[in-house]
Design brief:
The structure is a single chain. By secondary structure, the chain is of the alpha/beta class. Helices cover 20% and strands 36% of the residues. It has three helices and eight strands. A four-stranded mixed β-sheet has the order 1-4-3-2, with helices on both faces. It has a four-stranded mixed β-sheet with strand order 5-8-7-6, covered by helices on one side. The chain is globular and about 50 Å long. The termini are far apart. 18% of the residues are buried.
Length: 143
């Protein structure tokens, strides 16, 4: 059986703010829609499911991120995931220039949790809180 990762889906409180953040980092919106109806109820497992969605793609077209803003049923607020918590952990992106990516993130009010680290002289990387407290890892490969 062949298998491929289609996308990573993340529920957000403000779809437009999340789209702005990720497009400023370099992703491209490849589609937006409002989804509802019996098929959406069945696929997601929620009666009356109704959401605004945006599908974004990395510039190399190998990664996709689906962002969802729930209209019905209302979104449930939860404590932000922590780096050592079991469950959906984070979304990670490789960037050519970590300092530039951090400047872009800062324009959206997003800063590293602690700072920038170097891993075995291979990567400079950091975790930050993106829109809706999404944990985002940004990593720059060192040559």
């Amino acid at each position: 059986m062949a298998i491929a990762l289609e996308n990573v889906g993340i529920a957000v409180a403000d779809l437009d703010a999340a789209v702005a953040f990720f497009t400023d980092l370099g992703l491209t919106v490849i589609g937006r829609d409002t989804v509802h109806g019996a098929w959406a109820d069945t696929a997601v497992g929620l009666d009356g499911n109704h959401a605004r969605i945006a599908m974004l793609q990395t510039p190399d077209e190998t990664g996709r991120l689906e962002l969802m803003e729930q209209i019905h049923p209302p979104a449930i607020e939860a404590a932000p995931v922590r780096p050592h918590q079991i469950g959906m952990h984070r979304v990670a992106f490789s960037v050519d220039d970590l300092d530039e990516a951090l400047e872009i993130a800062a324009r959206h009010g997003c800063r590293p949790l602690r700072g920038v680290a170097t891993y075995q002289d291979l990567f400079r990387l950091t975790y930050l809180r993106g829109p809706s407290d999404i944990l985002v890892m940004l990593a720059q490969r060192l040559s």
